[in-house]
Design goal:
Blueprint lengths: L11 E5 L4 H11 L4 E6 L2 H10 L7 E5 L5 H15 L4 E4 L17 H29 L3 E6 L12 H21 L4 E8 L10 H9 L14 H12 L10 E4 L7
Parallel strand pairs: 1-2, 1-4, 2-3, 4-5, 5-6, 6-7
């Protein structure tokens, strides 16, 4: 799609990883709430699946292919969103390396794996937020940046040292951005999900092994989280009712961090 499709009567959000897992739930929640949404994925197959899922919203959604481990592609994704949809009101930094490839014993986790994880899970949100910040600042309408962190932003996960390092770094990034962007009425918040039932976190030997380890503990509310639980939180934080929230972390974990 090469023409602007957004009306100034609507707000526009860019959601990285917006076609799968938690990101897809966020995209769907926003689209059903009259937002325009740019969905960013790093695989064409995921974009095709998103097109099929959101075909009823064709007039209000665009799809962007980008490898967020590449700095220029982060910049291009933000600029393409603003060009196609006419504006940018919210950035949801949701994409990240998760599941088995995000963890492993320290003596087996390679430098290359660690470097790519940091590029995608920490550097990309920084680069995307910086470029979005330019656009929001110059538009003088304010805006919201939401970083999807994890309970690993606060506690380490078993054999998840690299992942925990990136997600705790995302918490620091959130606080720093909140301070720098506050003069422009741009709010920045971290949303920290716990154990959420998504394709990358369900099934397989990795999950069975993790849950049999002494480190694992049950969730007080007695169930796994759903992507919709996170999406509902994001929707609230984008709303006027959350206008005085910035620089904070909102935990969506069913009580996991309570003990």
């Amino acid at each position: 799609m090469n023409t602007q499709i957004a009306s100034r009567d609507f707000q526009v959000a860019l959601v990285t990883g917006g076609g799968t897992g938690i990101g897809a739930a966020i995209s769907e929640t926003l689209l059903t709430s009259d937002w325009h949404v740019a969905i960013v994925q790093d695989r064409e197959s995921d974009l095709e699946a998103a097109r099929a899922r959101f075909q009823g919203f064709d007039a209000r959604v665009v799809y962007i292919l980008a490898d967020l481990a590449v700095a220029q592609e982060c910049t291009d994704a933000i600029r393409r969103c603003a060009k196609l949809l006419g504006r940018l009101d919210a950035l949801i930094n949701n994409a990240g390396i998760t599941g088995p490839t995000a963890g492993g014993p320290i003596f087996e986790y390679t430098d290359d794996a660690f470097s790519r994880l940091i590029e995608v899970n920490l550097k990309a949100p920084y680069r995307l937020a910086r470029e979005a910040g330019f656009i929001m600042r110059d538009a003088r309408r304010g805006g919201v940046i939401i970083n999807i962190g994890s309970v690993a932003s606060f506690v380490t996960l078993y054999e998840g040292t690299a992942y925990s390092a990136a997600k705790s770094g995302l918490l620091g990034l959130t606080k720093g951005l909140a301070l720098e962007l506050a003069p422009y009425q741009i709010r920045v918040i971290l949303v920290a999900p716990g154990d959420i039932d998504t394709p990358t976190s369900s099934g397989g030997a990795f999950v069975k092994e993790r849950r049999s380890h002494p480190w694992y503990r049950p969730v007080p509310l007695g169930r796994r989280g759903r992507p919709e639980d996170v999406a509902a939180t994001v929707k609230f934080l984008l709303s006027p009712q959350a206008a005085y929230i910035t620089g904070s972390a909102v935990v969506v974990d069913g009580g996991f961090l309570s003990y």
